[in-house]
């Protein structure tokens, strides 16, 4: 994927009609579209094919987390849909991550496998509830190191962890960041957030942006305003 335009618009809508209308409107102003659980469960694999038919790149965000063989088969199926990115939970462990990457490498069109570290909706108290006695930043670094050692070339992390990860990871690792909120917009259920410009300056490769674009009165104008705010910033 070419990230001259680093915006990934999240098609977090419940049906194909709304998703395709957004994709048609936004395609010239964004770099890719994210298809997550809500839309995929509602419409199935066909929605991926229909968005790809527009010529847009697709980030399939289903966060696979299962035994290695099951995840490998799921990755192979996703690769046959010709998605450009897909997610697995880094907390699935080394064997699962290696199996996911191996399945991607065997595909005709190899997708970028992204290891999800700590969800941006979680803070220290949430980790403690799960028995993890680390703050989010330390847990993100632990899982990021695990995932890249297993061969993954991309990670999902909150904007707050971008700069620390850039200090410890190879330069070619792509960092994809949800939890992006333009100044003055509602934070929603995100807890560890930055503005688009702040995230790019910190070293993000891609920005996943949902409600600030797709729920705007004019989604195309919202995306263009964010892209304009990034002009001249290094990616």
Low-confidence stretches: none
Give the number of DSSP strands.
8
The CATH superfamily name is Aldolase class I
Strand order of the largest sheet: 1-2-3-4-5-6-7-8
Distance between the termini: 14 Å
Q: Quote the CATH topology.
A: TIM Barrel
The biggest beta sheet is recorded as: 8 strands, parallel, barrel
What proportion of the residues form beta strands (DSSP E)? Answer: 15-25%
SSE order, one letter for each helix or strand? EHEHHEHEHEHHEHEHEHH
Gross geometry: globular
Radius of gyration: 17 Å
Quote the average pLDDT. 91
Can you summarize this structure?
This protein is α/β, with parallel strands linked by helices and 235 residues long.
Textual characterization of the structure:
Helix 8 links the parallel strand 6 and strand 7. The chain is 43% helix and 16% strand. The protein has an 8-stranded parallel beta barrel with strand order 1-2-3-4-5-6-7-8, surrounded by 7 helices. The mean pLDDT is 91. Helix 4 packs parallel to helix 5. The relative contact order is 0.15. It starts with 6 loop residues before the first strand and ends in a 6-residue tail after the last helix. The protein contains 11 helices and 8 strands.
Which helices and strands occur, and which strands form pairs?
Elements: E1 7-10, H1 16-26, E2 32-36, H2 37-43, H3 45-52, E3 58-64, H4 68-80, E4 85-89, H5 94-105, E5 112-116, H6 124-129, H7 136-149, E6 154-156, H8 162-168, E7 174-177, H9 196-202, E8 206-209, H10 211-214, H11 219-229
Helix pairs in contact: 4-5
Features:
235 residues, alpha/beta, TIM Barrel, eight-stranded parallel β-barrel, 11 helices, 8 strands, globular
